[in-house]
Structures are given as C-alpha cells and as structure tokens.
Here is the input.
Amino acid sequence: MAPLVWDQVGERLYEVGVDHGVLYLPDATGVYATGVAWNGLTTVTESPSGAEPSPQYADNIKYLNLISAEEFGGTIEAFTYPEEFAQCDGTALPSPGVAVGQQVRKTFGLSYRTRVGNDVDGTEHGYKLHLLYGCQAAPSEKAYATINDSPEAISFSWEVTTTPVPCTDLKPTSLIVVDSTVVDAAALTLLEDELYGGASSTANLPLPDEVIALFPPGP
Here is the structure.
C-alpha cells in the first residue's frame, strides 16, 4: 500500500468561469426541443437546499435521522438575455418591440460550461457541462441608474427554482454535470452536437435518460 501524497503535479485542480450558456424551451410534451444562445451570461449560482436531518428518538436514545427531500435552485445573472426568455420572465410580446409584463412564467432548461484548470494546463485542462431542467424564474428587481463618470452596464438577475424530471433507476433530478476530463470524448461530442446543434440536429437539451445513455458505465 502506497502512502497518500498531496498536491502532485497535474492534480491541483480548480474551476473557474461560466460560458456557452444556452436557453431551452420545452414543447407540449416536456421535450426541450428548441435551444437559443444566451449571450452576456455573467454568473450562475447553484443553490441546493433541503436534505436536512430530522432526528427521531426511541428507547431514550437517538434512534435514527430522517433526511428531508433535497431541492435545487439558483440565481442567474447576465447583462442581457435572449428574446425567447421573455416568456420565462413573465413577459408577453404581442408585437415586435412591445412587451407586456405580469404574464404566466413558462418553464425552461439551461446549459452552461465552467472551465476546469490545473497547475500544468491552466484553464485549458478541461470543462464541465451543467444541464438544468424544470427551471422557473421568479420576478426580479431591475435598477436603472443615471450615466455618470463611472458607468456600469445594468446586470439582470433571476432567482430560479426547479421541478425535477424523471430519471430511470435514479431519483428525479434537475441537474446533470458532465466532466470532459473524465468522460469518453466521442460521447461528449455527441452530447455537444445535441446541446449546441450540429450538421444533423438543431440545438436541444436531451433529457437525463438520454444523456446517461450516451456514456456507458465504467468497469
């Protein structure tokens, strides 16, 4: 048995950045068949909640811990957003250039990429694809300020909650993360062709079962 060794060359990993944001709108059957690029994405904060212990007592001792259901939510921040996101933000567009607020907020899916770096390759070491399902945006504050000698672009922000979607042999989920430094490269290419569109497909968000089926289990 070899002793543990810390901070070896090439193993000092970290994550940084967010890019390649894509918004997906579901059809009537719940399939995320339409994807559009989300430019100006600045921050995506993943905020799981729940999974809290509820101790149970019997025979004058702590008998067991029951764990509450885990939920997934987060925050999206951006300098701008696709026109298609308006319906997810409670805005109807009855005609070009006319926006009517306080409408029904439609659900959506989202994918984005974070960089994986290390001490050898820097931020080019790899990346992770984050796939979000069943998202719904809450109303958000928009602060419009006067232009001054230190102008700043308006940053939009949305609190997001999710409703998990089915996943065979696993609990329903709202989040899948795919690590390019681990998975099969050919399968990753197939997934990216779906997410971003390719020669034979338009951009779409595969459901969890479809994503998992692309990557065979290890030995």
Summary: The longest helix spans residues 185-196. The mean pLDDT is 92. The chain is about 10% helix and 45% strand. The radius of gyration is 21 Å.
